[in-house]
Amino acid sequence: MAQALLAEGLAKRFGSVTALAGIGLEVAEGEVLGLLGPNGAGKTTTVRLLSTLLRPDEGRAVVFGYDVVREAARVRELIALTGQYVAVDEDLTGFENLLLIARLLELGRAEARGRARSLLEEFGLADAAGRTVRTYSGGMRRRLDLAASMVNRPRVLFLDEPTTGLDPKSRLELWAAVRRLVDGGMSVLLTTQYMEEADHLADNLVVVDRGTVVARGTADALKAKVGDRTLVVRPEAPHDLDVIHAATRQVAPHALVEKDGTVTVPSADGALMSAVLEVLRERALPVDEVALRKPSLDEVFLAIVGTSAPAAPLTTSEGGSA
């Protein structure tokens, strides 16, 4: 598989503050790399360096072999960036927004119109093509913003927290749009605060904290490092919680009562689950759910970066947080 993006030892300082302290990552062609970290960890600064908006103080990065500093113009022909805030004109229609971008990219009139119509169809906006963007929902605006990034047919897409503020339905629609792009060969670097989003979209993950990489791997690999599976027992009736806890402790002395009204047993396996079920059956205790679950990506994230409040986000001269 070809390498779409490679970064080695990226460092960036803003005055006395070090935003990045030697980050390295790589994205294969047709892969989604999730870049995770608390506020101020360096995610947005990394995206700006890789997308030629900032120059690194140290290190190097290449996009399909082109250096982001020495060959920035060529790199810009290969990439697209969708930031945290929608960058479309509310006073224009969806079609006019895409047509304007296509013409700015020097597509001929007929080609520009065809490209705009094609993208509106691809992103499920054809029926709203003639409406002004101010009448669009948040999800529609996000999809139009993503469609605008596709006008020049990029090979690498930077998504910087693309679903911030979207409702669950709109988030799912955007995920589906991104997955279609990846299925078509697009390479994506995704930053997000939503662990479910990273779990759903990313093939590999890099976790950064205070400007350095603190973990990398697939979601399953990172979950395995954090801990084993947990047995979860949910009573059918909340008033049976203490009784079920006592029964479970007969075979799992380290069983815990959780705030969500469940009994959990860390580091459980199938044999222990069978033993717990047998005890509950013998005591005729009705349960609503018994399951073995892996650690969530939220739990992985907290285990890696800790639960302490991060430092205040670094605001760069270009605007936005690091």
Automatic annotation (TrEMBL):
Keywords: Antibiotic resistance, ATP-binding, Cell membrane, Membrane, Nucleotide-binding, Translocase, Transport. The keyword Isomerase does not apply. Belongs to the ABC transporter superfamily. Drug exporter-1 (DrugE1) (TC 3.A.1.105) family. Its main location: membrane. This is ABC transporter. GO terms for molecular function: ATP binding; ATP hydrolysis activity. It is found in: Cell membrane. The keyword Cell membrane applies. It comes from Streptomyces viridochromogenes. It is a peripheral membrane protein. One of its GO terms (cellular component) is plasma membrane. Residues 5-235 form the ABC transporter domain. GO terms for biological process: daunorubicin transport; doxorubicin transport; response to antibiotic. Pfam families: ABC_tran. SUPFAM superfamilies: P-loop containing nucleoside triphosphate hydrolases.
